[in-house]
Amino acid sequence: MIEEHPIDDPGVEAHIERHADVDDSAGRRATLQVLTCFALAPLFALGFVIAYFWPGFDRMIVDFGPIYSNAQHLVMGGFLGFAVLLIGIGAIQWAREIMYDGEMVEERHGAASSAEDRAATLAEVDKGIEDSGISRRKVLGTSLVGAIGLTALAPLVMLLDAGPWPLPSRRRETIERTIWDAGTPEEPIYLVNDVTRSRIRAADMEIGQLINGEPENLWDHHGTDFQVEKAKAAIIIVRMDPNSIKVPDRRQDWHVGGILAYSKICTHVGCPISLWEQQTHHLLCPCHQSTFDLGDAGKVVFGPAARALPQLPITVDDEGYLIARSDFTAPVGPSYFERDLYPDDKGE
Ligand code: FES
Predict the structure, then answer these.
(1) Do 199 and 241 share a domain, yes or no?
(2) Cα of 269 to ligand 1 centre, how many Å?
(3) What is the number of the ligand 1 atom nearest to the C-alpha of 266?
(4) pLDDT along the chain (348 residues), means of 10
(5) Per-residue pLDDT reduced to its tens digit, 189-235
(6) 74 lines ligand 1 (CB under 6 A)
(7) Per the domain annotation, does 108 fall within a domain?
(8) Which domain holds residue 261?
């Protein structure tokens, strides 16, 4: 016959007291360790905030063996990582040395709790709070709340990266202008290939060709500035048969024999676009399939985008290289609440 319980119930092991339970000075030492962790965490969070605002820090690069990174990102990540690590170490030390560590047996029971069980659970919760040491050492609970609260504030400063406060004048200086506007008749801004950085001669472009381009002055910018200006100024340059495209009257001098330049940034939510169908002149955004007709002033022919792709007016210099006539005539990229309507939004 098979025995129903072949192994004797070993029962609960004898409880071993911890140092901190039997020795007051060990208890105080453990409390001090936890407090130290919770006190240091906000200092690292403060370091994170200082690193964020430190002038010029975003342009520094760490180049050390396999580490090649933006110094600001590295330091901010390090500070925030240490802040969270210290809160974690403090919490673990608290649980190991100060919270109640008696062994318990949990009996199996039905899924629904009886009123008595609920009352017993609440009593256990109260006991847990008591055993956690909060009621005896209130300073621990206060310091934990303080450490988490102050550390959680640190990432809030990153909201500043959501963009400038959108007053009209601020918008005009930032999201509504690009570095294409820096050109003058004496010193025009050249269109360059974004890989080779070489200027583009109109005569070298073939019908059906697409080139990803940038303004030549982009490389006067560095660090975050470089990224911000590149994100706004990126263009695609296409050549089409001038007899196969529609060019509105007021845009007749914006192209060079069927070579047109458009913003590369989708007007839906800002993906970079360059899926080009030579035959139809359509440009397809890979994110949500908005489709723009580059042979018809960049108008939207399909998808969620609500505005035509902004066109960059271009011409050529004396040697036949492509140059910008001006900045875009409508803000590039996605819409935002405060944005005004521009005639070019409809591709007219
Ligand atoms: S970002 Fe281009 S369609 Fe959505």
Answers:
(1) yes
(2) 5
(3) 2
(4) 65 85 91 95 95 87 81 93 96 92 76 85 90 79 88 84 79 90 94 95 95 96 90 96 94 95 96 92 95 95 94 96 95 85 81
(5) 999 999 999 999 999 999 999 999 999 999 999 888 899 999 999 99
(6) no
(7) no
(8) 168-346
Shared domain check, 139 and 221 = no
Task: Give yes or no for residue 309 CB within 6 A of ligand 1.
Answer: no
Ligand 1 lined by 285 (C-beta under 6 Å)? yes
Probe residue for ligand 1, chosen from 285, 292, 307, 309 as the CB with the greatest number of ligand atoms within 8 Å: 285
pLDDT tens across 242-285, in order? 999 999 999 999 999 999 999 999 999 999 998 999 999 999 99
Nearest to 181 by CA among 224, 213, 215, 226: 215
* Ordered DSSP codes for 232-249: HH-EEEEE--GGGSB--G
Both tokens of residue 55? 């002038």
229 CA distance to ligand 1 centroid (A)? 20
| 261 shares a domain with 191 | yes
Is 290 touching ligand 1 by the criterion CB < 6 Å?
A: yes
| Residue 318 shares a structural domain with residue 189 | yes
Total number of domains in the chain: 2
- Verify that 223 and 146 share a domain, yes or no: no
268 pocket-lining for ligand 1 (C-beta < 6 Å): yes
Give CA angle at 98 (80, 131), nearest 5°.
115
Q: How many CB atoms lie within 10 A of CB 105?
A: 6
Give me 171's structure tokens.
């918008």
Q: What share of the chain is helix, strand, coil (3-state, %, to 5)?
A: 45, 15, 40
CATH of the domain at 206: 2.102.10.10
Extract the tokens encoding 178.
Answer: 């690009």
One domain for residues 245 and 282: yes
